[in-house]
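Tokens in:
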């Protein structure tokens, strides 16, 4: 049995948290962890800046439909 690692759990929940597709309990849990963990908070800021960069890049140059389709096929469902 492996010990519970709150940072690993936070990493698993990072994208759903940022997409706002988590429950209120999960959101509160993530925010509590981010408030107290400098490492995860740094990762969150990186992900936030990356998303902002991608949004800006897409506004400047639309993504080809074939690439959108390919990227959609790479998504893995959340469990």
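Residues out:
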């Amino acid at each position: 049995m492996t010990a519970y690692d709150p940072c690993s759990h936070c990493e698993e929940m990072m994208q759903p948290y940022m997409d706002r597709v988590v429950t209120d309990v999960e959101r509160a849990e993530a925010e509590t962890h981010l408030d107290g963990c400098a490492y995860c908070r740094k990762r969150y800021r990186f992900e936030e800046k990356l998303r902002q960069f991608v949004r800006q890049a897409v506004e400047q140059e639309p993504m080809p439909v074939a690439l959108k389709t390919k990227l959609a096929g790479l998504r893995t469902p959340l469990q």
